[in-house]
Amino acid sequence: MHDARFDKLAKLLVEYSTRLKRNENVLIEAFDVPDEMTIALIRAVRKAGAIPFVQVQRARIGRELALEASDRQLTLAARHELARMKKMHAYIALRGSNNITELSDVPVAKMQLVAKKMRPVQDQRVKKTKWVVLRWPTPSMAQLAGMSTQAFEDFYFEVCTLDYRRLQPGMRALKALMEKTDRVEIKGPGTDLRFSIKGIPAVICGGDRNIPDGEVFTAPVKTSVEGHITFNAPTIYQSIAFDGIRLDFREGKIVQATSNQTEKLNKILDSDAGARYIGEFSLGFNPYVLEPMRDILFDEKIAGSFHFTPGQAYEEADNSNRSQVHWDMVNIQRPSYGGGEIYFDRKLIRRNGEFLPKPLRSLNRSNFVKRR
After folding, report:
1. What are the boundaries of each domain within the chain?
2. How buried is residue 199: exposed, middle or buried, by Cβ count under 10 Å (0-12/13-18/19+)?
3. Residue 312 has what DSSP assignment?
4. What pLDDT digit, counting tens, does each position of 305-323 carry?
5. How many CB atoms lie within 10 A of CB 122?
6. How far is CA 253 from CA 187, 206, 311, 355, in A?
7. What's the pLDDT band for 163 if we cut at 50, 70, 90?
8. How many C-beta atoms lie closer than 10 Å to residue 47's C-beta?
9. pLDDT confidence of 104, banded at 50, 70, 90?
């Protein structure tokens, strides 16, 4: 059944997020997504004069392959995938999931092997193509959000088709401020964190990488992180659900890590040397994303949040940390989550999730909702 919202979303992804041009090749990866949405994307790509290529993925099949994946098999698969990705100018991924814990019984060693072998493919996609990644609304996502399926679908399409141009002035001002900043201090319940971001670029995410979007990220100087942080948003990584993660730092390294799954948490952080250092620091401010739902593409954009990421740094904001892990962990600082403060060079920049400097106030949910 045709849904006009599919066409609107496809148009946004093709014309705004990836800005496809005539004769550009684009790979569409559809993970447990209705055929109608994939078709809408194909049509939007063709309308732009670009050339669509499609790969359909299924989570249960992916799990079965991962369970007994061998080094030889993954080496061959990665070589094939990398050769194809090198022919692409753009990449659009829609990722649905009927069960977000589908991979939870795949051994950690197998998941680490898959991540290691497929890393060159991901690096090619991230570094060499225009790309955008988004989730697809499913009943399981609605359940995690505590909403009916219909209400969640309405929320999803409102959030994902946001006019990101309205956020651009504030995002540019935040980028400029972050790039002038040396010392960052973050305080809140269970959190007292200090680090430097001096000399590391800040990057705007305004609908051209992830949907939904709404963040500006950088990275801490690798060995500068001191103190501790408690994350009040639940998270999921390698299909394992984690709650109440606390990390303690000394000279940039995570020296202690606890949660409801402390043993599994530390196994992931021991994946390689870089997994115990931070590769990203980001401020989130999508005005319509308010509550966590164990889906990082949504949760990392929550209004009044920040995330702190053990593992791989992005090339655009590089602190030299390298890892097969990249795990965005989220802390929400709005009053209903306990509040908190962020200081740049001892100046209070955000309190209880609201930016205070005038050039940044257009990013505040309160300001945005008034104009709705």
Report:
1. 4-160, 166-370
2. exposed
3. P
4. 999 999 999 989 999 999 9
5. 17
6. 19, 30, 11, 29
7. confident
8. 13
9. confident
Burial of 264 (0-12, 13-18, 19+ CB in 10 A): middle
- For 226, phi then psi, to 5°, come to -135, 150
**8-state DSSP, 13:** I
> Backbone phi, then psi, for 87, in 5-degree steps?
-90, -5
Handedness of CA 303, 265, 196, 115 (dihedral sign): negative
Give 119-138 pLDDT, tens digit per residue: 999 999 988 999 999 989 98
pLDDT in tens, 238-268: 889 999 999 999 999 999 999 999 999 999 9
User: What is the C-alpha radius of gyration for the chain, rounded to an integer number of angstroms?
Assistant: 20
262-269 vs 108-128: helix axis angle to the nearest 10? 50
Contacts of 73 (CB under 8 A, 6+ apart): none
**Alpha-carbon separation of residue 139 from 96, 97, 156, 280 (angstroms):** 10, 9, 12, 31
pLDDT reading at 371 higher than 50: no
pLDDT at residue 372 in the model: 39
Query: Token digits for 70?
Result: 């061998």
Which residue in 137, 166, 148 sits closest to 5, CA to CA? 137
Q: Beta strands of the chain (E only): which ranges?
A: 25-31, 51-57, 90-95, 130-135, 183-188, 191-196, 203-205, 210-211, 215-218, 226-230, 235-237, 240-242, 246-250, 253-258, 278-284, 305-310, 329-332, 341-344, 347-351, 354-355
Peptide bond into 139 cis (omega under 30): no
Stated length of the chain: 372
168/113 Cα distance (integer angstroms): 39
Alpha-carbon dihedral angle through residues 286, 287, 293, 296, given to the nearest 10 degrees: 0
Residue 131 CA to residue 348 CA, distance in Å, equals 34
Q: What is the pTM of this model?
A: 0.78
Would you call 280 helix, strand, or coil by DSSP? Answer: strand
What Cα–Cα distance (Å) separates residue 89 from each residue in 81, 126, 127, 134? 14, 11, 11, 18
The CATH class, in words, for 4-160 is alpha beta
